[in-house]
Amino acid sequence: MEHVIRAVRADEWPLVKELRLAALRDPVAPVAFLETYEQSVAHSDAFWQDRALGGSAAGSGDVRQFVAVAPDGRWDGSVTVLIERPDAEVRFGEAVGVHQAHVVGVYVRPEARGAGLAEELFRAGTDWAWSLTEPRIERVRLYVHEDNARAAAVYRRIGFVATGRSVPMPGDPSAREIEYAVERVPSE
Predict the structure, then answer these.
(1) CA 108, CA 17: separation in Å to the nearest integer?
(2) Are 19 and 132 in contact (CB under 8 A)?
């Protein structure tokens, strides 16, 4: 099945909502996402409209959500890329030292897994981040729960490397989130 990988559009908020709710029903959701289905389903339409706008090209420019659209129009997966700046708010307990991108909200529907969609979504997200000239992105990172072996294997397969850094899991300080990253190639 041939998917189109593209950025969301601001008017696609119902699809943004539907895919997020599907992701939160996944059995791995408690270790993969920082919110529950119940929290997410309670959000207003205005919240979803703002989220879609923010992840689109019409948004701030510091966030982009990419989706895998099947030939029948169904969204089978998504990644969101956030730009992090050294002078911005502290995230995950520490300030960032370089301009970087942070991949969040990674999800591929179970029936679409194994077809390379995660790789294609990551390629779209990282290509977008590397293409920025202001700011020039030096690295792309993500965090994965220490017990989410499936996701960690995918990230390693597409070139992300564990950095040795970890942070406590929000809401469960006994669990750890492991940082994975890809550095900009010096000649780029």
Answers:
(1) 15
(2) no
Please report the pLDDT score of residue 76 as a whole number: 97
Cα distance between residue 145 and residue 119, in whole Å: 19
pLDDT in tens, 70-128: 999 999 999 999 999 887 766 666 778 889 999 999 999 999 999 999 999 999 999 99
Tell me the Ramachandran region of residue 83: left when phi exceeds 0, alpha when psi lies from -120 to 50, beta otherwise: beta
As given in the structure block, the two tokens for residue 175 are 């669990």
Task: Tally the residues of the chain.
Answer: 188
- Facing residues of 66 across strands? 7, 79
Q: Which two tokens stand for residue 153?
A: 């294997």
DSSP-assigned letter for residue 110: G
